[in-house]
Amino acid sequence: MKHGGMFDSLFVSKTVLAVTILGITILSVAAGFVGGVMAGRFSIDRPAAASEPAPAVATEPAKEINAKAFHLVDDQGTIHAALGFIDNGPGLQFFDSEHRPRVVFEMTGNGDPRLFLMDAEGSIRTVLGLGLGVDGRPFIRLRDRDGKVLWSAPQPKSGK
């Protein structure tokens, strides 16, 4: 039995409407999923959760980064460590809560490494390094608050 023209168009309209609703529903669910994944990957305001394990495979690192300095800061922007130039060579500094340098590792202008440990008042209490004299010998100095050498290896020459 054949229906009239009006009933055929009504049947086609219901079918088109059902397919359209199904398509919109599938598209909405897919867009929500993709949006959620992308928001999670690119959110810069989201702190990393301490309970999340580190990824097993790191993303590919940048081949090269050029900068004059890098600062390690906390949530308030306070610098706790700095990598940059100190005097004539590269250096790494760690600061205490009052932003005083407490540990400094640097390379001198001629390439000799030095490690300085400072007390809370800023006095250098320990120096460890290479390049003492022209032969590049290693050395260590332990100092009191006034800078007087308490112990040294090798022993400093008289007058120093």
Strand order within the widest sheet? 1-2-3-4-5-6-7-8
Put simply, the count of helices is 1
CATH second-level architecture of the domain at 70-153: Alpha-Beta Complex
Any idea what the radius of gyration is? 33 Å
Give a short account of the largest sheet: 8 strands, antiparallel
Estimated helix fraction: 10-25%
| Counted beta strands | 8
- Alpha-carbon distance between the two ends: 117 Å
Q: What characteristic shape results from the CA principal axes? A: elongated
Output mean pLDDT: 76
Q: Could you please say which CATH topology of the domain at 70-153 applies here?
A: Outer Surface Protein A, domain 3
Share of residues in strands: 25-35%
**Helix and strand run:** HEEEEEEEE
Low-pLDDT runs of 5+ residues are 39-50
CATH class of the domain at 70-153: Alpha Beta
Structural class: alpha+beta
Short précis:
By secondary structure, the protein is of the alpha+beta class.
Secondary-structure map:
Layout: H1 5-42, E1 70-73, E2 79-86, E3 89-95, E4 101-107, E5 113-118, E6 124-132, E7 137-143, E8 149-153
Antiparallel strand pairs: 1-2, 2-3, 3-4, 4-5, 5-6, 6-7, 7-8
Report what the structure shows:
- By secondary structure, the protein is an alpha+beta fold.
- The chain has a domain at 70-153: Outer Surface Protein A, domain 3, CATH 3.90.930.1.
- Helix content is 24%, strand content 33%.
- The protein is built from one helix and eight strands.
- It has one helix at 5-42; strands at residues 70-73, 79-86, 89-95, 101-107, 113-118, 124-132, 137-143, 149-153.
- Strands 1-2-3-4-5-6-7-8 form an eight-stranded antiparallel beta sheet, with no helix packed on it.
- Strand 2 and strand 3 form a beta hairpin.
- It is elongated, with a radius of gyration of 33 Å.
- The model is unreliable at 39-50 (pLDDT under 50).
